[in-house]
Structures are given as structure tokens and as C-alpha cells.
């Protein structure tokens, strides 16, 4: 197959449709997320409410991904479920503009994240079904790239809208319906539904048991790595504290946000670059293992407690690189290890394992930092990262 023919075979309307959908959907809810804390404060709700809203929403989303993944594999067509999920998220996000009490925001956010959970396994299964296996890395990497661009556009749009509307939070929330519905249209008009020969009729537990052994080993590696994979918002706190003595608290905070923007740029680029690389080498697992090992190096550098702006920039770049690699390669390797008729449950289970990892890592790293010091916290992360890399390397050989 020539290079032109190969490009044509994977960069099709479904890949473009899923990518554009991810861009516009993330643009929508990241715009809302950027102003949500200030809006809650304006209606008299404190940080406890924000924590409750995010915690309930994340928990519901993870549960929905697992269950929706199971049922996605039993449906004759997956596309309507994904379209419903995107539309439900768009309307629930815009509903913040009607809220006057924190509990109403909680209901809206929970609904939006429930929609995200429902659509996620179906979206990934549809993407994998319309792409040749040798191009999984590029297809999933491009989707992550587009999603990250939406996350960059969202906060910038929120700032612009606040200025343009005289700091009307409600108008910002209503505006999110526009990119949200564009996302729905992109998915509905562009994404193709490829027929799957057999549909699973197993119960949920039997479906889990039927997942291939190599995939279950992948989940163990993902879980071990995830237990140390701290929220990257911690990097902003870390940089702010390290830069404050030399630059002052206010300037340090601004520099930390600038570093995080740099992090996001490399995050977006590495998602596609690592996927492209994984399609070019004999074993895709090597790229994921390298990403996990890079995370270990990042954690070791964080242990140094550096006050150097240039070294902090390197740390943020490395963090962005491994995050993009992790997300693109976990999805593409899962698609490779699991038969198409089980893709929905596989992606839902992967998301659930990642959610448990997020919960454990938040408790572990935050607790160690508070109880001991930053060196102990990131030493624990580094050990889990390298352990995860070893587990990935020990997966069965797959081309």
C-alpha cells in the first residue's frame, strides 16, 4: 500500500467527524468549567459545593462509561447512543444559565457528565470500527489532539465572553450550547456506523470475564500507573510555590499558568505524535511503556524541588508529553487487543480503571505531600510509574 493510499484509508470522514466532535464538545464544557467557580461564588456557594459537584459528576461519568460500554456492544447501532450523549451534555451544560442555587448546578453538571459517560465507549468503538488496526495510533491520537485544542479554546472563549457580556456568567453558559450542538451535528453527519458481525448477548459479569487476557493484563498496568498519576493541576500549585520566593506570589501564579499552557501545547502534540510513532514500529506497547517511563522521569525531577524556571519548563513539557502518550496509546492498544464486538465494554472498563486510579492517586499523592513532603509524594509516583511501564512491557507480543 502506498503512503497516499494508507493516509486515505485512515483519515476518513469518521476520523474527522470524531475529531471535530471532540473539539467542539470540549470547547463547550471547558468554557463553562472556566467560569463555574466564580459563578458558584456569585450565587453564594463555597468551595465545598464545587468539590461536591465535581466529585458527583466524575463518579457518575465513570459508572456510566462502564455500563454504557456493556450495552453498546449489545446494540445493533451504536451511533444514536453517542449522539444522544453529546446532545444531553450540551443541554445540561447550558442549563447552568438557569440555575439560582448550587443544587441546580449539581443536577446540571451530573447530567452533563452522565452524557459524557454514555457517549464515550460508543464513540471510541465507532472510531475503531472505521479505521484499519495499523492506524489505530494515529486515529486515536488525532482525536486526543482535537479534544485538547477544545480545552485550550474553552477558557480563552470564556474570558472573551465575560468581557463582551459585561461579566454575565449566565450568557456564557447559554453560549456553550452553540459549540455543543455543532459537536452533535458533526457526529451525526460525518461518523459512519460499520456493521459488526456478532453482537454480544452475555451478561455484564460474563462479558468482563470474556475480555482477552492480554487486555486484562493491560488494565493491571494502567491501574498501577494510574495510582501514581496525580492531577496535573497539582503542577500549577507546585510551580507557584517553587517560584514564589524569587518572583513573588502574584508573579509566580501567573508564571505557573503560563507553564501549564506550555504543558497543554505539548500534551496536544504528543497525543498525535505518539500515536503516529506507534503505527510505525512493530510493537505498540513499547510507545506506551516509554510514556509511562517518561512519567517516572518527570516525577524524579519533581522530587528535586527546583526553583529554576527553565527546569520547571522542562518538567511541564515532559508532563504534557507523557499525558498525551498515555491517553492516545491506552485507547489504541485496547482497540488492538480486543475484538471489535467487545470494544464497547473494553473502553468502558478502561475508563473505569482510570477513574479508580485518579481517585487513588489524588488521595495518595495529596496525603503524602501533606503528611511528609513533596519528595515523598513524587517518589511514590515515580515507583508506580516505572512499575506500570514494566507491566506494559510484559504484555504479550502484538504487532
Amino acid at each position: 500500500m502506498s503512503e497516499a493510499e494508507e493516509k486515505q484509508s485512515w483519515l476518513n470522514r469518521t476520523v474527522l467527524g470524531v475529531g471535530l466532535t471532540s473539539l467542539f464538545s470540549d470547547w463547550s464544557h471547558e468554557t463553562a468549567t472556566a467560569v463555574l467557580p466564580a459563578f458558584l461564588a456569585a450565587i453564594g456557594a463555597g468551595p465545598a459545593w464545587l468539590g461536591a459537584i465535581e466529585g458527583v459528576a466524575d463518579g457518575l461519568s465513570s459508572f456510566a462509561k462502564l455500563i454504557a460500554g456493556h450495552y453498546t456492544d449489545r446494540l445493533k447501532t451504536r451511533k444514536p447512543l453517542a449522539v444522544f450523549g453529546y446532545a444531553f451534555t450540551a443541554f445540561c451544560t447550558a442549563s447552568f444559565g438557569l440555575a439560582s442555587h448550587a443544587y441546580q448546578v449539581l443536577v446540571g453538571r451530573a447530567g452533563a457528565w452522565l452524557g459524557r459517560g454514555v457517549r464515550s465507549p460508543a464513540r471510541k468503538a465507532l472510531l475503531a470500527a472505521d479505521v484499519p488496526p495499523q492506524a489505530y495510533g494515529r486515529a486515536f491520537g488525532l482525536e486526543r489532539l482535537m479534544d485538547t485544542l477544545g480545552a485550550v479554546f474553552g477558557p480563552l472563549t470564556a474570558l472573551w465572553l465575560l468581557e463582551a457580556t459585561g461579566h454575565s456568567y449566565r450568557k456564557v453558559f447559554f453560549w456553550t450550547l452553540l459549540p455543543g450542538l455543532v459537536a452533535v451535528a458533526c457526529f451525526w453527519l460525518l461518523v459512519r456506523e460499520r456493521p459488526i458481525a456478532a453482537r454480544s448477548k452475555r451478561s455484564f459479569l460474563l462479558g468482563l470475564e470474556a475480555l482477552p487476557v492480554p487486555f486484562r493484563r493491560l488494565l493491571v498496568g494502567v491501574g498501577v500507573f494510574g495510582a501514581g498519576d496525580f492531577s496535573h493541576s497539582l503542577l500549577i500549585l507546585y510551580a507557584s510555590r517553587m517560584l514564589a520566593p524569587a518572583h513573588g506570589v502574584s508573579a509566580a501564579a501567573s508564571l505557573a499558568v503560563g507553564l501549564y499552557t506550555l504543558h497543554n501545547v505539548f500534551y496536544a502534540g504528543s497525543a498525535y505524535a505518539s500515536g503516529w510513532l506507534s503505527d510505525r514500529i512493530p510493537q505498540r506497547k513499547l510507545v506506551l511503556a516509554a510514556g509511562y517511563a517518561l512519567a517516572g522521569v518527570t516525577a524524579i525531577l519533581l522530587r528535586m524541588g527546583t526553583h529554576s524556571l527553565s527546569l520547571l519548563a522542562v518538567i511541564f513539557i515532559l508532563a504534557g508529553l507523557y499525558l498525551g502518550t498515555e491517553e492516545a496509546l491506552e485507547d489504541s492498544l485496547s482497540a488492538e487487543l480486543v475484538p471489535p464486538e467487545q470494544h464497547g465494554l473494553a473502553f468502558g472498563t478502561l475508563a473505569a480503571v482510570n477513574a479508580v486510579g485518579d481517585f487513588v492517586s489524588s488521595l495518595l499523592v495529596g496525603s503524602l505531600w501533606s503528611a511528609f513532603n513533596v519528595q515523598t509524594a513524587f517518589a511514590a509516583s515515580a515507583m508506580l510509574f516505572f512499575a506500570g511501564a514494566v507491566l506494559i512491557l510484559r504484555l504479550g507480543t502484538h504487532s
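The chain has two domains: 3-190, 211-393. The mean pLDDT is 87.
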